[in-house]
Structures are given as structure tokens and as C-alpha cells.
Amino acid sequence: MPSEGYRVAVVGATGQVGSLMLQLLCERAFPAREVVAFASARSTGRTLAGAGLDGGDLTVRELSEAAVQGFDLALFSAGGATSGAWAPRFVDAGAVVVDNSSRWRMHDDVPLVVAEVNPDALADHHGIIANPNCSTMQMVVALEPLHAAAGIERLVVSTYQAVSGTGRAAVDELLEQSHALLHEREIAAPAAYAHQIAFNALPHAGRFAPGEDHTDEERKLINETRKILGDPAIRVSATCVRVPVVNGHSEAVNVQIRGDLSPERARELLEAAPGVTVLDDPAAALYPLAIEASGKDGVFVGRIRRDPGHEHALDLWIVADNLRKGAATNAVQLAELLHERGLIGPARERAAA
Ligand SMILES: NC(=O)c1ccc[n+]([C@@H]2O[C@H](COP(=O)([O-])OP(=O)(O)OC[C@H]3O[C@@H](n4cnc5c(N)ncnc54)[C@H](OP(=O)(O)O)[C@@H]3O)[C@@H](O)[C@H]2O)c1
Fold first, then answer.
1. pTM
2. DSSP 3-state assignment of 15?
3. Residue 132 C-beta-side C-alpha neighbours within 13 Å
4. Which strands form 313-320's sheet, in the order they lie side by side?
5. Is the CB–ligand 1 distance for residue 42 below 6 Å?
6. Residue 16 C-alpha to ligand 1 middle, in angstroms?
7. I need a labelling partner for 205 at 20 to 30 A (CA). Which of 93, 237, 243, 292 fits?
8. d(CA 288, CA 66)
9. How far away, in angstroms, is 17 Cα from ligand 1 center?
């Protein structure tokens, strides 16, 4: 580490995830000497009040060849196109990039890492490290201890995803539609989604590519789960549903085990798992809720029970804050691990070492 701390870029600093990254770098006392905020040209010159390391203001900068020089670390949350264009330029200029978009996740030479699940994969990085999709992230934190103990054969996943997962504009749209409908006014034509999201449930989280019968969100859940758990044999069925929840994704997950695992043993394993909190007393109405997970960093698991339809399967309910553990918290945890393991430094130097 440079003696006075790292120089860190946050790309997408005006967004929901980027602003949380700035906050978490401060709260968790990441050893940075300077943090620089980047966003689109629309935001250049905007002041982010109190977002600096010392509680001072940050001024948003625009990405340019000159502006990306001299960083040790860059945290990206500005969409796939920005990551595709600019993450390699930060790497060429000597930085390590932790990227929140889907742009690099499935590349063979890019580790896809969840801090509690596969931190050792960080050692193989070539400059870019990918932060998984939010629904995958929370699910694998809960599944890894079960997979390690008994092996997962198949997953059947139904998600109930919050609108914050789509970006700030989608949150505004949900609130505007809800307000209009409660006041018996016409709503504007939907923009964030194909249909009205207020008081509705859309079996359409993500995009359908031409000819595809799954959304890209469902494909991410399938492919990223296998990559992170390091087991391409795991079969995954996924239906991703957008629901009118502001923040916090919920998931009903049916887990078919290769061996045998009782619900009691699964509960013990989950209670001991890093990053997991078990909330499981349904008779007392105790189970994870999106509104309670929102604003917290952990993954919450409840409704742990045997599937009466399959002797080797369990059912779980998994909830987390998609902006925190699903995005910003994991990215900052990865930055901390990179620091602790001496993995921040120009790619050229690492390759030569
Ligand atoms: N929301 C989630 O739950 C979640 C979870 C995991 C991963 N992610 C990923 O994180 C990223 C951001 O999500 P978000 O929810 O924070 O979105 P958001 O609130 O809409 O923010 C988007 C950010 O990207 C910036 N940006 C857009 N175009 C840019 C460009 N051409 N150059 C530089 N910056 C640009 C925006 O800057 P302006 O303000 O200037 O427009 C803003 O800072 C996405 O890649 C998303 O897939 C999100």
C-alpha cells in the first residue's frame, strides 16, 4: 500500500450503488488517501455534499484518458457500457477495478467474487474483479455452507425483486405511480418497465433478448451461481419477478441436495455461516422481510423446511438489501480483501512478480 493510503475512483458516484460505496468507504475506514467521484457528463461539476473521506464535499468529474491516470483502485457502478469502455483503461493506467456491472462477470480471466464465499478467487485477478448480480449474491451467501456440507444438485428459484435494483429512476416511477393511483389520477406511460409496477407483480425482471425465453437476470442467476460455487453441474431453474418493493430482494429457493441434509442441520450450518442471520420462527411470524433487511449489510434466511415433494430437498426464504450486500457492501468488502492480501497494485507488476 502507498504509505499515505490508496487513491480510489468511484465511477457512477451519483447513483444509488455508487453513493453507498462512497459512504461505506468512509464508514468502514478503508485506507484511502483520496477518493475521486466520476459520473456521466450530465453530472460533471456537481457537488456531492459530505461524500468525501473527511466528510468534506466531492466534485463529480467526467471520465477522460487524463482523468483515469494515477489510481490504485476503481469501484465501478455505472452500467455495462461504461465498464466495458473504461475499466480496461483504469487497469492499463495501473488500477485494480471492482466492477458491479454484468460486463465482465462471465469472462474466464475475471474472478467473480463474493467475500464470504470464494475470496481466494481474488488471487487470480488480472486487473478486473467482478461483483456478482444482486439476486445471485445474496443467494450464494446462504447456499455455500449447504453446498460445502452436502452438495447441491438443483435449485428452483423464484425472486421477488425490488425496484431499486433497476436504478433510481425506477424507484421514482414506483412512487409516482403509487401516489397517482392512491389519488385516483391517471398514471404516466410506464418507462422503467413494460407495465405498471405499482400494485402489480411483473414476471419480467431484466430483459428478454430476441428469441430468448429467459430474461438476462434469470440467465445471470443460473450462470453466476455455478461460477461462484465452482460447480458447473448445479442445475438452476429461475423465475425473476419484479415487485412493488422499494428496496430489498426476497427469494424463495428450493434446494435439492446430492446427499442428505435435515432442516435442523441446515439451520445449524446457516447460523454459523459468515454474513448470514437466521430468522426462523414462523409461528411467531418471524422470518426475513425486505423492509427490515433494507439498510443492513447481512443476508437473512428463514422458512427453513423440508420440501414435502422431494426427500432430498429443502425450502428457504432468503432476503437482503440489494444495494448493500447485493452491490456496494460486497464491492467494498472485496476492496478490503484485496488490500489485506496485498493484491492492489499495477497488473503489470503482478504479472512480472
Ligand atoms: N441497483 C442494484 O441493486 C444493483 C445491484 C447490483 C449491481 N448493480 C449495478 O450497478 C450499476 C449502477 O446501478 P444503480 O442502481 O446505482 O444505478 P443508478 O442509480 O441509475 O446510477 C447510475 C450511475 O451510473 C452513472 N453513469 C451512467 N452513464 C454513465 C456514463 N456514460 N459514464 C459515467 N457514468 C455513467 C450515473 O451518472 P449520472 O448521475 O451522471 O447519470 C450514475 O452515477 C449498474 O451496472 C447495475 O447493474 C445494481
1. 0.96
2. coil
3. 30
4. 235-242, 152-161, 249-257, 313-320, 299-306, 276-278
5. yes
6. 7
7. 292
8. 47
9. 7
